[in-house]
Amino acid sequence: MAYIIEGFLKAWELLFTGHPETYSAVAVTLKATSLSIAGSLVTGLPAGFCLAYCTFPGKKFLRALVDTLLALPTVVVGLLVYAFVTYRGPLGKLGLLFTIPGMAVAQIVLVFPIVVSLTATAVEGLDRRLRPTLLGLGARGGQLLSATLSESRFAIFTASATAYGRAISEVGASMMIGGNIKWHTRTITTAIALETGKGEFAMGIALGIVLLLLAFTVNWTLVLLKRRS
Amino acid sequence: MTSLLYELEAVRHGYGNAFTLDVPRLVLEEGASVGLVGPNGSGKSTLLRILALIEEPREGIVRFCGAAVGHETRPGAGGRRINGRSHLRRDVAILLQDPYLLKKTVFDNVAYGLKVRGEREGLSARVGEALEFVGLPPGRFAKRRWHELSGGESHRVALAARLAVRPKVLILDEPTASVDRQSARLIKEAVAEARRRHGTALIISSHDQVWLGGVAGETLKMYDGRIVEHGAPNILCGPWRPGENGLWRMALKDGQAISAVDPPRPDAAALLDPTSIILTTTRPRGVSAQNALGGTIASMTAEGKTIRVEIDVSGLPLHCTITPPAAESLKILPGRRVYVVFKASSLHWY
Fold this sequence. Notes:
The complex is a heterodimer of chains A (about 230) and B (about 350).
Chain A: H1 2-16, H2 20-53, H3 59-69, H4 74-85, H5 100-124, H6 130-136, H7 142-151, H8 153-169, H9 172-178, H10 188-197, H11 201-228
Helix pairs in contact in A: 1-11, 2-5, 2-8, 3-5, 4-5, 4-9, 5-8, 5-9, 8-11, 10-11
Chain B: E1 4-13, E2 21-29, E3 33-37, H1 44-51, E4 59-64, E5 67-68, H2 85-89, E6 92-95, H3 106-116, H4 123-133, H5 138-141, H6 151-164, E7 169-173, H7 181-198, E8 201-205, H8 209-213, E9 218-223, E10 226-228, E11 234-236, E12 241-242, E13 248-251, E14 257-260, E15 270-272, E16 278-280, E17 291-303, E18 306-313, E19 316-322, H9 324-330, E20 337-342, E21 347-349
Parallel strand pairs in B: 3-8, 3-9, 6-7, 7-8
Antiparallel strand pairs in B: 1-2, 1-4, 4-5, 9-10, 11-15, 12-13, 13-14, 15-21, 16-20, 17-18, 17-20, 18-19
Helix pairs in contact in B: 3-4, 3-6, 4-6, 6-7
């Protein structure tokens, strides 16, 4: 039991004494997840909108496919992306392996289905009168997209928070693509895996608490954003 | 010369397999002000959506200001459809029966149509003007959010959003169905003002024929997906309440009532064939017909070998056809007081 209490004490110590290794992991985590969330929102929001709004052959199949990908195991994503970005792979020339952008790519693959699926659900759940209203007011093209997303903004905040939670907590893909290199691609989650492997439970718990605090900060920011809009 | 605003040819539309709207031809001139009446489910809303260019008919051609915006059913003719539609659509504004406000402030709702058109010049002045138009002082309402409004206020905000863009055509679907009397009056005034100031054409559907008569110049009657013109049945929209002798009554404004037999629902619409109506100049006695209603001849028009007579029965317009000899022997003329006689059982339920 003692090491659990020790872990909590250690967490405060790491946070408030500015432990450089911890802060490096926090910084890497934030960089990778920010990149991946930005990337998945930019692509996933319009894709989710189209999936709900447009009619095309194979739409139901695609929807089922996206929903299946929600449960994509992180190691499978890691494996797939690794196969592409490894130096022998088709994208090897980009030099993404063992870099933060490489980790972000893997997280985008992981999180994209979440953004698409939740956005589609949000758009489908919108009032049926919205489309004729927007058309009747003269909106067209991208204006329809932005107004529709704006009407479903609360649901989209939730989608973003869910996606962020998935990205920040995954360990498999970051480990495989990033390589858990100290000062370079070591994230909080890969550090926890490493510390636990070394038997350093206290350090692991401390890092876990840091991770939770980080996630809480993000969610609390979203709550404040929701209240304002 | 007045030019054509709308020209519909062989337009058919429906949901699922059946066609619920069938308009072989309809022409509306620029600056028209048209009322649309008919029972629920007669295709009014569908026609209005097609006229607003937000819905495309399954068959037929819709020409708006000379440009074809519907599509032809012939294969290979698809190439010329729609390209300019979103541009044309901006000349038409439609207020849906149950309007939807965007999850924004009143100001942003009213400004939305102007913003998507890129008309940012004098934006707040135009929004303010539109709100004044519908009787909502901008100082009190502009900053309110969509959920801080009553039903009538939301309806008027939605109308203001349509007025703000100064459309060529303003289409209102049942604008008075769910608002209080004051809102109905404000809507009428705002619409009339838009027409005076900007020459806006109006196309309005309503069950309230008296309200509609105060706004629209001409009236189209719809029944079962068709525009029924002369010789069409009279439509009585109820509501029906149980009366004496097992009959049901639809009360008219000045105490008169129409009796009917067994309406399927209290709000059922009844059809009265013009040929079932008998006109007399004296109050009939000793007839079996349950309905003998006093009214005034509103108009008489010759139609081939018969005369079409419009009678105002306590604000309810009814029409019937009579022969010229009958008109002569009754000595009826517009303005004359007559009695409209028909059997309670001659009403057919819709």
